[in-house]
Amino acid sequence: MSAVVKLANVHKSFGPLKVLDGVSFEVGRGEVVALIGQSGSGKSTALRCINALETIEEGAIEVCGHAIHAPTLDKRALRLSVGIVFQSYNLFPHLTALQNIMLAPTCVKGITRKEAREIAMDCLTRVGLAEKAEHYPEQLSGGQQQRVAIARSLAMQPQVMLFDEVTSALDPQLTSEVLKVMEDLARGGMTMILVTHEMGFARRVAGTVIYMRQGRVWETLPGRDLDNPRTPELRDFVGSGL
Amino acid sequence: MTYQFDFASLLPYWRDFAAGVWLTLQLSAVATVLGFVGGALCAIARADGPPWLKRLVGAYVEVIRNTPLLVQIFLVYFGIAVLGLRVDATMAAVLALVVNVVAYTCEIMRAGIESIHKAQIEAGECLGLNRRQIYWHVVLRPAIERVYPALVSQYVLLMLASSICSQISAEELTAVANRIQSDTFRSFETYIVVGLVYLALSFVVRWAFWGFGLLVFTRRRKLGTAL
């Protein structure tokens, strides 16, 4: 299986703080990879580097054929292939759910508003929110806003979706409705990389779990083996969550 | 107090008053539109331009905000003459008002732009929008919506401040009043009338902005948020 996302020996610092210290991993098409680890372990930064939201100092990242580390990188072309969903949803507050989703397809891909509306409604239906199309973000719950944000990314038909702690701001009930949408996506064959603290979800859905610690890939294992880690650090980490 | 009010002697001048009101509205409208566009561009330059441009716009804003409008009007009026250009008083008045209101609009808009969270811009970038699209859809539209009440206050103030243009004999409402009171010697009555006309104009202008806001800011209209 050819890798869609490939990190090789990636280094990144914020000032004197080493955040990524030689991170390497690969994600194949249709794979679901969960990045787990303590706060500050570098997992969110790794994710943001994949989408060129952060620059790296050393190493190489390749995403859907784009060399992220190259100075010639066309960020906009990259972002046509990669969708990202944030912890804080970041919906545009002055636009309805539908308009939020239609914005990028009409602006970036230049398709007609009619087509964009059809795509947007289709994406809203996939996240179970077709009836909220005309609602503004402030009229939606956190879980609904996050599902709209997922739909907004989906509408651009990305090859890879990144999820950056998308349920961390939600209560358990809202978390489960968002996770259900993500599980459906995974079943549909979407290539996904997610930073998460939901161990149950990682175990159930992720083909591969990457445990990061001190800016390094500490342990890589299949999601279903999450209860039997090899390293004592991951055992502690998983144990503390149960 | 034995003052005898005599409004009747002003009646023959109603056409002059009307002409003054018309010019006041024209001055204000042109200065508002140009001030809005210029102010928005300056705000963008100040928020996101190269360092030299940021400093230049910053200096301009500070100079305008810290000198009297009357002095600015004289400087523009006589400055144009010194440059050897022939511009009538009304044009000079418009120009001076624009120079003034652009600076104030710039400051208000900058506050609006700065209130937009960085994560919003990041979200726009991640959707593949280019810089211009991000500025328009993600930054300016919500920013303008947020500072709209402050902008409206500024533009009502501008309409009232346009009375100062009478000093370079632009024939707007106050200049007309100055002439009428020296013709009729009914100064108190003249300025009572003019005051009431300005009051009415302010209400009309505010009302117009309110209606315009409802038209443009769909979210406010749908959610019934105050404007």
From TrEMBL, chain A:
| Chief location | membrane
List UniProt keywords, sorted A-Z.
Answer: Amino-acid transport, ATP-binding, Cell membrane, Membrane, Nucleotide-binding, Transport
**Record InterPro entries:** AAA+_ATPase, ABC_ATPase_HisP-typ, ABC_transporter-like_ATP-bd, ABC_transporter-like_CS, MetN_ABC_transporter-like, P-loop_NTPase
What Pfam family does this protein match (any one)? Answer: ABC_tran
Location within or outside the cell: Cell membrane
In this chain the ABC transporter domain maps to 5-239
* Highest rank taxon of the organism: Bacteria
Q: What is the recorded membrane topology of this protein?
A: Peripheral membrane protein
One Gene Ontology term of the molecular function aspect: ABC-type amino acid transporter activity
Gene Ontology CC, one term = plasma membrane
Q: Which family does it belong to?
A: Belongs to the ABC transporter superfamily.
Q: What is this protein called?
A: Glutamine transport ATP-binding protein GlnQ
Q: Which organism is it from?
A: Methylobacterium frigidaeris
Whichever gene encodes this chain, its name is glnQ_1
TrEMBL record, chain B:
Query: GO BP, one example?
Result: amino acid transport
Membrane topology is:
Multi-pass membrane protein
Q: Which SUPFAM superfamilies match?
A: MetI-like
| Domain of life, per lineage | Bacteria
* Domain spans labelled ABC transmembrane type-1: 21-209
Q: Does the keyword Nuclease apply?
A: no
Q: Which family does it belong to?
A: Belongs to the binding-protein-dependent transport system permease family. HisMQ subfamily.
Q: What is this protein called?
A: Octopine transport system permease protein OccM
In its UniProt entry, the species of origin is given as: Methylobacterium frigidaeris
Q: Which gene produces this protein? A: occM_1
